[in-house]
Amino acid sequence: LLDGKDSEYYLPASVSDVDLNFDLVEDRAIKSVHIQLWYYSRVDSIEIGWLLDDGNPWGVKPTSTQWNAIDAGSHKSGLNKEIEITFPNMVAARYIQIRLRGGWRGSAKTNDWGLQNIKISGILDENYPTSIVHRYGLETAGTLAIEPRSPSSWSDGYPRDSNTLLDGTGSEYYLPASVSDVDLNFDLEVDRALQGVYIQLWYYSRVNSIEIGWLPDDGMDQDSGDTGPPASAQWNVINSGSHTNGINKEIVITFPKMVAARYIQIRFRGGWRGVSKTDSWGIRNIKISGFL
Questions:
Q1: Residue 68 CA: distances (Å) to CA of 27, 64, 98, 194
Q2: Cα–Cα distance measured from residue 114 to residue 105, given in angstroms and rounded to the nearest whole number
Q3: What are phi and psi of 140, to 5 degrees?
Q4: Are residues 284 and 165 in contact, defined by beta-carbon separation less than 8 angstroms?
Q5: Which of 115, 220, 262, 289 is the least crowded, having the fewest Cβ atoms under 10 Å away?
Q6: In the chain, what's the furthest Cα-to-Cα distance?
Q7: Nearest to 275 by CA among 244, 241, 242
Q8: Spans in the chain with pLDDT lower than 70
Q9: How many whole angstroms separate alpha carbon 25 and alpha carbon 96?
């Protein structure tokens, strides 16, 4: 099925339903699935299911049974028919399940049927470039909430309108000198395949550390009043270090490999402006890159 030589994989007429279960070891950014039916084989329906990495060792079945799925319909015509199933959005997944239901060959449905040339397209870690063209725009795919962490409440006149961070005009989002630690919490509504994060510090603002945290989709429903991941959630984190020089400094944080996430948390710790640390500081032009 995978040698690229058009070799047939025969299936007996007595087996009309079969699943092809791929374990890709870890999450990958998946674009499409290619299937070729052998000779005059027909299939009543094809579905493609996918699941995120659950941490299981390779070869162990996934823990979850709540598959995401796309229906590719029926395929009952043609000779050596080739079927290309492209996801409307690039998806992130470790597990891919190709479900063939009602397979047969010939009008009597008593002959062996078959498949050949199964392919999955996407981005492997070894093909993930160290220098990439960021596809920005995911920052507007969901919601943004800004949370003060130290102290945990705002002073008078704050918070400001968070839309100024995302409007692309370079507008400053001011933060009071009394709030040195703040989180930007993005809910992108569903899992997205993410490349990185862009941040610009306003004027002479400095930050002792910036971290990017991410979590996969947990099924929370915004329309039902759910408010994001629980406080006990185990975030994946990348640390971009300190940024204590420059003017209007631009910072691009690229993930070592493409990650799958619904929630993105940008954590600023030790923010200030000026040598006295008594002036307001600020950020601007927050962007998240990846695939919608």
A1: 14, 11, 12, 19
A2: 8
A3: -100, 10
A4: yes
A5: 220
A6: 85
A7: 244
A8: 124-131, 222-227
A9: 11
Instruction: Report the SS3 class of residue 226.
Output: coil
pTM of the model: 0.71
User: What pLDDT digit, counting tens, does each position of 217-267 carry?
Assistant: 887 876 665 667 877 788 999 999 999 999 999 999 998 777 888 999 999
Among the listed residues 103, 119, 94, 85, the one whose alpha carbon sits nearest the alpha carbon of residue 17: 103
* Residue with token string 């229906």: 71
E-assigned strand segments in the chain:
9-11, 18-37, 41-51, 68-75, 82-105, 113-123, 143-150, 173-175, 181-201, 205-215, 236-243, 250-273, 281-291
Residue type, 137: G
- Token pair 């449905």: residue: 109
Read off the tokens for 155: 């002073």
Tokens in use for 128?
């993930």
